[in-house]
Write a structure and sequence with these properties.
The chain is α+β, with helices and mostly antiparallel strands. The chain contains 13 helices and eleven strands. The chain has helices at 75-82, 96-100, 102-113, 117-136, 152-163, 170-177, 181-192, 196-213, 218-224, 230-241, 245-248, 252-255, 257-260; strands spanning 2-5, 14-15, 22-28, 32-36, 42-44, 47-49, 59-64, 67-73, 93-95, 268-271, 274-278. The strands form two sheets. Strands 9-6-3-8-1-11-10 form a seven-stranded antiparallel beta sheet. The protein has a four-stranded antiparallel beta sheet with strand order 2-7-4-5, with no helix packed on it. β10 and β11 form a beta hairpin. α8 crosses α10. The longest helix has 20 residues, at 117-136. The chain is globular and about 50 Å long. Mean pLDDT is 82; it is low at 140-146 and 264-282.
Length: 282
Amino acid sequence: MAGFSDRHRTPLPLRLIPHPAVTLGLVFGTGSLAVDDAAGRVHTGSLVAGLGLGFGAVRLRRVEDFACLQVRLPPVVAGAVLGVRPSELDGGVVPLDDLWGHEAGLIAERMSEAGSWEERFAWVDAMLARRAGLARRGMIARSNGGGPLVDPEVAWAWHQMVASQGLVRIDHLAAELGWSRKRLWSRFHAQIGLPPKRAAKLVRFDHAAHRLVAGQNAARVAADGGYTDQSHLHRDVMAFAGVTPANVAAEPFLTIDDIAWPTRGTPAAAAQYGRSSGRQSR
């Protein structure tokens, strides 16, 4: 999770780059922001974005002195926390009110009342853990947070994709599980929200994008990342982000990832687009 606030003038619109997680954005305070999704709909306030942000042109459209606590949820736990599987988000952006009702407003009030980012991090961490714990024990109805858990085999397949940076072969995963490719495709798609091959490509794209941001040569990124050639990398980047690899390397939200999403610890640092503080979620 990471905290973002913008008391400066942010150049808009600001493109949001797809990430291999379900994104929960908790907006609070007196300011506001608006997000355009890939279908051209405008969303304001707290929201949930499906795996990969739905791809396409997702942008911050308007920012007015906003504050937001953003959580990246692995898709294997997102259903338990949110109350709906990632596949039910259809990859798109959904207002949090539609999923949590009145609770979404109460969360925004609690975020506003907190005296520090660390207090907000701790409270949200506990809230999400509580929802996931109740779902695991089957103690609440699905519509109130008891989202379905994923099969252990599906969770294992996802973790293999992440560990291999998206390079694992899908037929190898199916063989290891003793499943047919069709069975893995069906279970994975229904529970994670993307077909296995598409999910692996998203993980691979994420690693490639961050290497490009770090200044690495596109040809080397393509060779090390399992792409056939640089043209293959170009096509995948365009498909996921809607811009060329050169443009991805300069995307603001990626250039501050090392600040907002640190490997360890809870540093606070001034970023180009306002002040952000972050911590890695458990």
